[in-house]
# Entry
Amino acid sequence: MKKIDRRWIWIGLGVFTVLLRMVAGYYPHLVESWYSRNWFQWLRYVNDYTISLSPIPLFYVLLIGIFSYAIYVWFFRKKTKRNWRQRLVNFGFSTLAVLSALAFIFLTFWGFNYARVSVEDQLGMEVVPLDGPDLAQEFEILTKELIDVRNQFGEIDQDHFHQGVFHDQLETDLRSIVIETFQSLGYPTGGKVRARLLRPKGVLLRISTAGFYFPFVNECHVDAGLHPLQIPFVMAHELAHGYGITDEGSCNFFALLACSRSDDLVYRYSGLLLYWRYLAGEYRSYYPEEYKTAYHELLTEAIRGDLRAIRENGKLYPDIFPEFRNLAYSTYLRTQGIEEGMKNYNRVVMLATAWRKHHQLSQFSD
# Structure
């Protein structure tokens, strides 16, 4: 019997999972019950208590493996005698098989979560676009809370934040508060998602990315070059991805809730400060002059100094291809059903406002 070319198997699996994903988009409740709360949770347990126990980020291991295999194919694999047409067809067939395998792995291990029930539906919130007066009210409330939390630090310098964030318990602490937040909202938290600080510093920032969740190794990664005040929020955001939340605005929302509930003052301040930056961007588009007044007259010098420090730190790692990255990632998000693309990050403003109103909170840390 003639041996089956394994590439056909991967192509078949890839086509099947892509078609299944297209159908799954019409049945979010089935996806929620069968995949997100069952199959995906079992995958988390198996992965997090086996390969993720590695002390080395698996992203590095995968890159080394791919590079090593490429060297093997180029220098040591036996070459067959084919003309250029045969080589071109073979290359195209292999490329299709690789892309199909990636689609199968991506969707199986994480990607079907894009079709699950939305966060607002699961939490019973009404999420609507905010007009100018609503934004102004939310901006005023959050600014007061931000000032209150920052004042609790007293007179400190930027070194305090470095000491408060870069410690051995960073990953453990943030995973604990994310798990606590998820469970309090009725979300399952199978496994023990890893969150790694990637080095060299700036490796992600130079492509306009602070962190990412990599489904092919089921781990979160955060650029170690971020300012310390950004790291808790970004890591909580990526951990939310790891526990099955896909859209960016929802992950920002969960990161805000988790950080604001923490007993650690640095984590709480990180969550509020980074959410304030999203909210301020929206508020400024409606009220540019009022925003300038608020920035210079309402914010304390300490908060303005923290914002300047974040901006100056970002300048250390200038973007390489910012427009290409934004276009590519917006396209990716739209293919997953997130029509607003990169603007989805700002959806946190609508979610957070709806959450506060739904629970009649005067501040997020209530």
Remarks:
- The chain has a mean pLDDT of 87.
